[in-house]
Amino acid sequence: MEFITFYEGKDMTDSDKIENTQKRLKKRLKDLEFLGLVKYGKAKQQKGTAEIPVYTYSRPGYVLAWIIESFNPNRRDSANNEIYNWLEMICSIDNHSSSNVIFYAHLFKKCKETGQFDYIVSLFREVINSNIYLKNINYLFNETLILIFNDPGRIDAFEIILNETLDELDVNTRELFLYHQKLELERRMKLIAGHPKGYEEMCFEIRGNPHILAVEGRCVLCRLYFPLGVNLLDYREKIIKDRNEMLDCITTKCPGCKISSVLLIPNLL
Known about the structure:
Layout: H1 14-34, E1 38-44, E2 51-57, H2 59-69, H3 76-90, H4 99-114, H5 117-129, H6 137-150, H7 156-168, H8 171-192, H9 196-205, E3 212-219, E4 225-231, H10 232-242, E5 249-252, E6 263-266
Helix pairs in contact: 2-3, 4-7, 4-8, 5-6
């Protein structure tokens, strides 16, 4: 292992070097604290009454550490077990749990029992390796959880488990969960909409229906943009199974020229 020599060629005392090293370490620890990966506390010195700073991993910090460990194929099985144990604690269900926490707690348990949890961890690694800007640990979790539900490249066994989990939710939790997915996909659509005002009006028109997703299609013949509402789960299934991989979209009938398969609806998953 090659070590970096920060002070080579510089005229500095050992105490200066130690002080500068401590400043760098404290700055890095503050960065980790800001990212939610470590927690800051204080403890009394073994000798005397003074308090010293103490940093420990947070629960998300442990999850990320084990996800990084899972990049090593030889350590993957043990890492997956540790990731599951920590996620089980993070996603513990109580009366105040969000629909996302409830859904993923049930999904993680099913995946663990059926041997599909390694696929969940592979999606965490995929997000880490992507170009997605991850401001903090919550961004990593959010991007991965969205990918878990919407990944177009999923395996059939996992898709079955995911649909079973969704079907087993009570009506209220299921609708809240779908509404969260709907809002995220509509946020993505809004960023690329060709006719923003028309798209916003469509979002507003169907705002109270968690099952209907506002999308925008572009007709290759009319050269016009058309906002429309589609069933969220139907859209997701068509993107996964029937999308045009070259154009990364699905096609449907244009409401303008009335010709089939000429309206291109983008893949938002």
